[in-house]
Amino acid sequence: MIWMQNLPLWVALPAALLVVAGSTLTLLGTLGLVTLKSFYDRLHAPTLGTSWGTAAILLASMLVFGWTEGRLVLHELVIGIFVMVTTPVTLMLLGRAALYRDRGEGSAEVPEAPPEPAPAEQP
Amino acid sequence: MTRMVPHPLLSLGLLAMWLLLNGPSLGHALLGGAIALVAGWALSALEPERLRLRRPGAMLRLFGIVGLDIIRSNIAVAGLILTRDRKGKRRSGFVKVSLRLRDPAALAVLSIIVTATPGTAWLEYDPETGVLLLHVFDLVSEEDWQHLIRDRYEALLLEVFP
User: Fold this and answer.
1) B121 backbone dihedrals φ, ψ, rounded to 5°
2) Taking CA atoms, what residue in A is nearest to B96?
3) Confidence of residue A103 (pLDDT cuts 50, 70, 90)
């Protein structure tokens, strides 16, 4: 990593701050995943990592490689977009599975299921 | 034109992705363009209706608002985890919001916004009644969240998606 020593301060400093901020947020997210008490609370913690945790690390990568390659490096944006677009799929899957389980057990803490659509009238 | 490019937004997006991943060059522009066209035809077999967007101004405003909200809620949730839930005073809960949005693409965008913002999780949407069930990490008042979703995001989404 010799070339890293040639980074000017105005690139190295914000990149370092972004990496530290991103990894700290991700760490806090995993910490929450371990320590929070209810399943629905734990759903929220990892979204720290998938939002600004990812974004800050990607921004730092764009900054550093943009400077060393001397051009605009944008393909990190694709990673960011895919992470943003796919997280809701897993989150909804987990959330709805938990709702289904809790309703099946008759838990009083979750709201009731929406009413079944009225059956179509027989001709 | 419509027959050749049934889904112009999808094709443009795919071409942009192809060029971002492979680096811009004429060869890749042609190859990526061909793939984007074929993907557009494939999608038109599955989903004949073309996605329509209006009011780029409202779209930009939505991006700005969501960007700010994501930063703000990242800080808020990180703070709550660090302070051990304000020493146990945090209360989480479910919130029901009845939505006016019916367009599937607009609902998908709303679900991305809600999920990308730490502190809110999209749990269930009932297409019959249009009621969305959210779980909120730090619930102070249900009404505040209903207003936030309806006035801050849904109103703009209704402008963008006709």
Assistant:
1) -130, 130
2) A111
3) confident
Q: What pLDDT was estimated at residue A119?
A: 59
CB pair distance less than 8 Å for B81 and A32: yes
Q: How distant, in Å, are the alpha carbons of B53, B60, B104, B137, B155 from that of B162?
A: 7, 16, 12, 32, 12
DSSP chain B: -TTT-S-HHHHHHHHHHHHHHH-S-HHHHHHHHHHHHHHHHHHHHH--SPP----HHHHHHHHHHHHHHHHHHHHHHHHHHHTHHHHHT---EEEEEE-----HHHHHHHHHHHHHSTTEEEEEEETTTTEEEEEESS-S-HHHHHHIIIIIIIHHHHHH--
* For range A52-60, the mean pLDDT: 92
Chain A from 32 to 91: CB within 8 A of any B CB: 32, 35-36, 38, 40-41, 43-45, 47-48, 50-52, 74-75, 77-78, 84-85, 87-88, 91
Mean pLDDT by 10 residues, chain B (162 residues): 77 89 86 90 81 82 90 88 76 87 87 88 87 88 85 88 78
Residue A49 and residue B115 in contact, taking contact as beta carbons nearer than 8 Å? no
Flag whether residue B83 sits within 8 Å of chain A, measured between CB atoms. no
The 10 Å CB-count burial string (b at 16+, else e) for B61-84 is: ebeeebeebbeebbeebbebbeee
User: If phi over 0 gives left and psi between -120 and 50 gives alpha, with beta otherwise, what is residue B87?
Assistant: left
Tokens found for residue A115: 């009413």
Instruction: Please state, in angstroms and rounded to a whole number, the distance separating the CA atoms of residues A18 and A11.
Output: 11
Q: How far apart are CA B123 and CA B73, in angstroms?
A: 18
Residue B162, pLDDT score: 73
Please tell me the pTM assigned to this model: 0.83
